């Protein structure tokens, strides 16, 4: 048995069914061993695509996603996707080939220090120096990636280690005395949370992506149902409470819902759960620190006090904390006056649409119809830009797993491969990739992957011939000096492009065509692309700036 | 800005130091001084880091360091609770006429003269930052050819030790 065989056995014993990857000389022994195993593989068209696929797969299947690349450029192509996974705490194992041990440090062909390159955005990484370490390292990697605050772990295998004969030995036991997993959260701290809630006049719960990582969706829903506390979310926390639920008041942040930001500002107690309170979420929130207002609950102690100093910190797993909190709040409900105030704000600031035809489709109208027609029984992936925020604010998101987006890193090119990964993870629900014509072109070669493996991703392409997010930014902050945002001259005929891959499409330009188009897309068994003409002056949302509202009026 | 001293036990693995130092760079923390060395347990090294900042920053540094897999234990030491020492080797310009004078200064600072050449004296001093600075200031006027100075290393006073959790 070779080192590669042993690595594959270790992957199997950690439950791996599918690997996404791209081959090269250095990881060739590993790929050879996969062919003799129960593990299925998907060949991407770029290593970055493979790692995003692993991310989409991980998020839907709630396990570590595995990707592989060869040494040097193969490994560096993974980098953006590993950083994307790190920022959103996605469990991932990245397996890279490396040059032979004796060539390391000699600038050998296709050599790169991938451990050093990825140090800032991996949870941990290993260079395997001996075949006897393989079982232990792979087991540790899975343990680290999937426990605590999840994240990507990279294992770098020199080619000769993969080829070495394994004669038994070395052991498979995890040995991580420096890895400090949290036990049960401190009950006294949770009691303080309960006490603070009971005297609060305007409490809210802010759900972040950590709620999903913790698998605490059920518990949070129970808590909100029993107490009626208004819930807001960050982008990664969307779906913790269904976005059409009475208890949910919207996504906060610079691109969140206006009503959510107003409610956040007016509240007198914020219970932030599993969120790093990042700049895009709370930059415009005033008075959060130093006013006995912020309670911060997170499994990662380093998140507490990193961006904001809370007045009650709780370090612990959200699920455990919520389970302890629920009985302490028995009989307590959020003040009715506050709920009425929040309801009134929701009513006042929920935008209504004109669904009249205008030569362009309203993406907001489209996404509302898409969630109504599918009942949101889908996995929706997004790219990054206007398409992402239109989805976040207008598509009804029922579960956090149902909405796959690059929240922290904001990686264009994420959605299409993530959708491929989500499709490989399950076949019960359709997977819909919502994209802009800019971001789609970042990873469009993955159409080949989709086609080759008959992965039935439904693609929604909002075409405005612009890099819309930046276009809008230049309108707002650069005096409408539109530079480097017009892609019209170079865009392909998207219908012909997907046709070249044997993928069917339909193009629409009016709101009245929306329902039929959605139904046609869903009825098709294969992958399909809906090309939707959208105005280049369609605003992203409502919250960024009052000026934003005027955007469409001025330019139209 | 105050000085804080962190005593950190880490696995004696290749690459651990770069993980620790890299963390300081990318999180925007400043290392004032650093020293690394083995411990009684050959599998464990001790890194002593002196940082300048406020109490929140030091707490963040400590929490972020804890997330490194190879970091086993961290303790922030206060000035009055520890003995802290650094070492400096200094090559001082000298000729036979002032040699005695320099050696006299060295004696006051309990510095050892470790090498002599026709034109230089090399002295070794250990002690607190202030002591090392004071010695260097005293010999400055003779002309300092070269200095090699270590980062501070520290141990807690009394019977307490930085023990591993069992």
> Which homologous superfamily in CATH is the superfamily of the largest domain in chain B?
ACT domain
| N-to-C order of helices and strands of chain B | EHEEHEEHEEHEE
End-to-end separation of chain B in angstroms reads 36 Å
As for the CATH topology of the largest domain in chain A, it is Rossmann fold
Largest interface pair: A-B, 19 and 21 residues
Largest sheet of chain A: 6 strands, parallel
Q: What spatial order of strands do you see in the largest sheet of chain A? A: 2-1-3-4-6-5
Shape of chain A: globular
Number of domains of chain A: 3
| Beta-strand share of residues of chain A | 15-25%
- Quaternary structure classification: heterodimer
Key phrases:
heterodimer, A: 556 residues, alpha/beta, Rossmann fold, 3 domains, 6-stranded parallel sheet, 24 helices, 39% helix, 15% strand, globular, disordered C terminus, B: 166 residues, alpha+beta, Alpha-Beta Plaits, 5-stranded antiparallel sheet, 4-stranded antiparallel sheet, 9 strands, elongated
What do you see in this structure?
The complex is a heterodimer of chains A (556) and B (166). Chain A folds into 3 domains: 3-163, Rossmann fold (3-Layer(aba) Sandwich); 187-349, TPP-binding domain (Rossmann fold, 3-Layer(aba) Sandwich), CATH 3.40.50; 363-555, Rossmann fold (3-Layer(aba) Sandwich), CATH 3.40.50.970. In chain A, the strands form 3 sheets. Chain A has a 6-stranded parallel sheet, sandwiched between helices. A 6-stranded parallel sheet of chain A has the order 9-8-7-10-11-12, sandwiched between helices. In chain A, strands 14-13-15-16-18-17 form a 6-stranded parallel sheet, with helices on both faces. The longest helix of chain A is centred in the N-terminal third of the chain and has 15 residues, at 47-61. Chain A is 39% helix and 15% strand. Chain B has 2 domains: 2-77, Alpha-Beta Plaits (2-Layer Sandwich), CATH 3.30.70.260; 83-153, ACT-like. Chain A, domain 2 (Alpha-Beta Plaits). In chain B, the strands form 2 sheets. In chain B, strands 5, 6, 7, 8 and 9 form a 5-stranded antiparallel sheet that branches. A 4-stranded antiparallel sheet of chain B has the order 2-3-1-4, covered by helices on one side. Chain B is of the alpha+beta class. Chain B contains 4 helices and 9 strands. The A-B interface holds A 115-116, 119-120, 124, 127, 144, 176-180, 300-302, 304-306, 309 and B 10-11, 15, 18-19, 22, 26, 56, 59-60, 63-64, 66-72, 164-165.
């Amino acid at each position: 048995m070779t080192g590669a065989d042993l690595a594959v056995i270790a992957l199997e014993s950690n439950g791996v069914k599918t690997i996404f990857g791209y081959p090269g000389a250095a990881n060739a022994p590993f790929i050879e061993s996969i062919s003799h195993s129960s593990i299925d593989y998907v060949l991407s068209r770029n290593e970055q695509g493979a790692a995003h696929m692993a991310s989409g797969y991980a998020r839907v299947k709630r396990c570590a996603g595995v990707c592989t690349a060869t040494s040097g450029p193969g490994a560096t192509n993974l980098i953006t996707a590993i950083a994307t996974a790190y920022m959103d705490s996605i469990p991932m194992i990245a397996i890279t080939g490396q040059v032979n041990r004796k060539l390391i440090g000699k600038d050998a062909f296709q050599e790169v220090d991938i451990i050093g390159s990825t140090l800032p955005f991996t949870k941990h990484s290993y260079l395997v120096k001996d075949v006897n370490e393989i079982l232990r390292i792979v087991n540790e990697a899975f343990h680290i990636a999937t426990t605590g605050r999840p994240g990507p772990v990279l294992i770098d295998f020199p080619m000769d280690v993969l080829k070495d004969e394994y004669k038994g030995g070395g052991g498979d036991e995890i040995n991580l005395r420096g890895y400090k997993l949290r036990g049960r959260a401190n009950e006294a701290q949770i009691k303080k949370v309960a006490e603070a809630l009971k005297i609060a006049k305007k409490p809210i719960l802010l759900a972040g992506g950590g709620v999903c990582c913790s698998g605490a969706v059920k518990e949070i829903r129970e808590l909100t149902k029993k107490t009626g506390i208004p819930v807001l979310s960050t982008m990664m926390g969307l779906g913790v409470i269904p976005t059409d639920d009475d208890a949910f008041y919207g996504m906060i942040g610079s691109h969140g819902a206006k009503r959510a930001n107003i409610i956040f500002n007016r509240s007198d107690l914020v219970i932030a759960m599993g969120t790093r309170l990042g700049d895009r979420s709370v930059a415009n929130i005033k008075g959060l620190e130093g006013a006995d207002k912020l309670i911060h609950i997170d499994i990662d102690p380093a998140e507490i006090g990193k961006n904001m100093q809370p007045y009650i910190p709780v370090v612990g797993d959200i699920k455990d904390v919520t389970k302890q909190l629920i009985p302490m709040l028995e009989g307590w409900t959020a003040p009715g006056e506050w709920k009425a105030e929040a309801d009134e704000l929701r009513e006042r600031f929920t935008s209504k649409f004109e669904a009249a035809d205008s030569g362009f489709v309203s993406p907001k109208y489209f996404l509302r119809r898409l969630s109504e027609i599918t009942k949101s029984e889908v996995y929706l992936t997004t790219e990054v830009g206007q398409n992402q925020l239109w989805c976040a604010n207008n598509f009804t998101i029922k579960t956090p797993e149902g909405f796959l987006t690059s929240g922290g890193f904001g990686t264009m090119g994420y959605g299409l491969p993530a959708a491929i990964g989500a499709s490989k993870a399950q076949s019960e629900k359709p997977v819909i990739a919502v994209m802009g014509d800019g971001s789609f072109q970042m990873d469009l070669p993955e159409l080949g992957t989709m086609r080759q493996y008959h992965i039935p991703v439904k693609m929604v392409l909002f075409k405005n011939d612009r890099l819309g997010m930046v276009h809008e930014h230049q309108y707002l902050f650069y005096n409408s000096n539109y530079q480097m945002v017009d892609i019209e001259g170079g865009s392909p005929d998207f219908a012909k492009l997907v046709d070249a891959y044997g993928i069917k499409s339909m193009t629409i330009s009016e709101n009245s065509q929306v329902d039929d188009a959605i139904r046609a897309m869903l009825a098709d068994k294969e992958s399909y692309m809906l090309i939707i003409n959208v105005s280049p002056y369609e605003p992203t949302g409502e919250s960024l700036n009052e000026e934003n509202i005027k955007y469409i009026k001025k330019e139209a | 800005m105050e000085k804080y001293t962190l005593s950190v036990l880490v696995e004696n693995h290749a690459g651990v130091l770069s993980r620790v130092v890299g963390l300081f760079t990318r999180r925007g923390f400043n290392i004032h001084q650093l020293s690394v060395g083995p411990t009684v347990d050959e599998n464990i090294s001790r890194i002593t880091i002196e940082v300048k900042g406020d109490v929140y920053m030091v707490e963040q540094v400590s929490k972020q360091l804890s997330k490194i897999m190879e970091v086993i234990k961290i303790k922030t030491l206060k000035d009055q609770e520890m003995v802290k020492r650094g070492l400096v080797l200094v090559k001082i310009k000298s000729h036979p006429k002032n040699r005695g004078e320099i050696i006299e200064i060295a004696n006051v600072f309990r510095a050892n003269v470790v090498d002599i050449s026709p034109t230089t004296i090399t002295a070794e001093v250990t002690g607190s930052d202030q002591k090392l600075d004071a010695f260097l200031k005293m010999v400055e006027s003779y002309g300092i050819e070269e200095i090699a100075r270590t980062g501070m290393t520290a141990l807690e006073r009394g019977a307490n030790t930085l023990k591993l959790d069992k």
